[in-house]
């Protein structure tokens, strides 16, 4: 510490150490804020239409079109270390196909809709009869009337620290599982209908 | 020119070096604690960032220049020529 240059270096060096510890404590403070987001989804209109992915494509394929209602409260994910939250709606179908020829692709997930929530003021989502943002198609080109469910997911991006994910979904009986037990209403599961103009392979069971 | 060179070098005495080091550590740790607590209480990380940077700037202002407070105990050398007797004994 005998000359100005050395003092400058030492001060800056210790500044980086202090910054590291402040950042580490900030990242750890996420443990102090347990979050309890809620979500309710109601599927309104599920359709499958055939179309060509490109003007020049010769092979048509099926597209899944979904309208849904979404009520979600992600307020509890926001604290002093939250930069933004990415919320998205996934449709997943793992069940074997209803037709006689089962698909070899058994685990399917597609994101239908998403949004970036930049601050706590817009953390309450209320969507009515919203259309899916993205085109959804099966890898084989045919959905084969499988049973599907939707899952509401979120990804928290903090200023300092690790990203973390969470989700709310419904089980086979329509009970909402994971994170929230209250607020199980609406329709989360569905059977993918046959494409427009096609006859269903299996008859719909009476509800 | 010599004055400018002195300012850039900024040499301080041994006692001053010890005090500069202590001052630097105490101020920076204090800055970190205040920055964290203020940001946590007000729930806004921007306060933490600006208090941290501001506190570090103040610490540098306090520690880096050769303030007169760091030069209060200059080293006093022995007067010249006092070692002459010993040199004669060696021969």
TrEMBL record, chain A:
Keywords: Endoplasmic reticulum, Membrane, Signal-anchor, Transmembrane, Transmembrane helix. Pfam families: SPC22. Its main location: endoplasmic reticulum. GO terms for cellular component: signal peptidase complex. InterPro entries: SPC3. It is found in: Endoplasmic reticulum membrane. GO terms for biological process: protein targeting to ER; signal peptide processing. It is a single-pass type II membrane protein. The chain crosses the membrane at residues 12-33. Essential component of the signal peptidase complex (SPC) which catalyzes the cleavage of N-terminal signal sequences from nascent proteins as they are translocated into the lumen of the endoplasmic reticulum. Essential for the SPC catalytic activity, possibly by stabilizing and positioning the active center of the complex close to the lumenal surface. Essential for viability. Belongs to the SPCS3 family. This is Signal peptidase subunit 3. It comes from Ascodesmis nigricans.
TrEMBL record, chain B:
This is Signal peptidase complex subunit 1. It comes from the Eukaryota. Component of the signal peptidase complex (SPC) which catalyzes the cleavage of N-terminal signal sequences from nascent proteins as they are translocated into the lumen of the endoplasmic reticulum. Dispensable for SPC enzymatic activity. The chain crosses the membrane at residues 23-41, 47-64. Belongs to the SPCS1 family. Keywords: Endoplasmic reticulum, Membrane, Transmembrane, Transmembrane helix. The keyword Membrane applies. It comes from Ascodesmis nigricans. It is a multi-pass membrane protein. It is found in: Endoplasmic reticulum membrane. GO terms for biological process: protein targeting to ER; signal peptide processing. InterPro entries: Spc1/SPCS1. The lineage of its organism: Eukaryota, Fungi, Dikarya, Ascomycota, Pezizomycotina.
């Amino acid at each position: 510490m005998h000359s100005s240059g050395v003092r400058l270096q030492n001060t800056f060096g210790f500044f980086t150490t202090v910054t590291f510890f402040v950042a580490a404590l900030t990242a750890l403070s996420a443990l102090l804020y347990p979050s309890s987001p809620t979500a309710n989804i109601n599927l309104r209109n599920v359709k499958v239409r055939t179309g060509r992915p490109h003007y020049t494509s010769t092979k048509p394929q099926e597209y899944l079109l979904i309208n849904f209602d979404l009520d979600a409260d992600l307020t509890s994910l926001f604290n002093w270390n939250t930069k933004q939250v990415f919320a998205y709606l996934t449709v997943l179908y793992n069940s074997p196909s209803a037709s006689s020829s089962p698909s070899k692709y058994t685990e399917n997930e597609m994101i239908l809709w998403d949004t970036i929530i930049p601050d706590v003021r817009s953390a309450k989502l209320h969507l009515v009869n919203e259309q899916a943002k993205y085109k959804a198609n099966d890898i084989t080109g045919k959905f084969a009337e499988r049973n599907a469910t939707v899952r509401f997911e979120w990804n928290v991006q903090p200023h300092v620290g690790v990203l973390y994910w969470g989700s709310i979904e419904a089980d086979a009986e329509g009970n909402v599982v994971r994170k929230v037990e209250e607020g199980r209403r609406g329709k989360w599961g569905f059977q993918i209908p046959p494409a427009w103009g096609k006859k269903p392979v299996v008859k719909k069971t009476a509800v | 020119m010599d004055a400018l060179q002195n300012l850039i070098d900024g040499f301080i005495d041994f006692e001053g070096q010890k005090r500069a080091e202590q001052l630097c550590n105490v101020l920076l740790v204090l800055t970190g604690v205040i920055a964290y607590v203020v940001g946590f209480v007000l729930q806004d990380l921007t306060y933490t960032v600006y208090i941290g940077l501001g506190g570090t700037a103040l610490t540098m202002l306090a520690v880096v220049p050769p303030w007169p407070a760091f030069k209060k105990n200059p080293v006093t050398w022995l007067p010249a020529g006092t070692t002459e007797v010993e040199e004669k004994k060696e021969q």
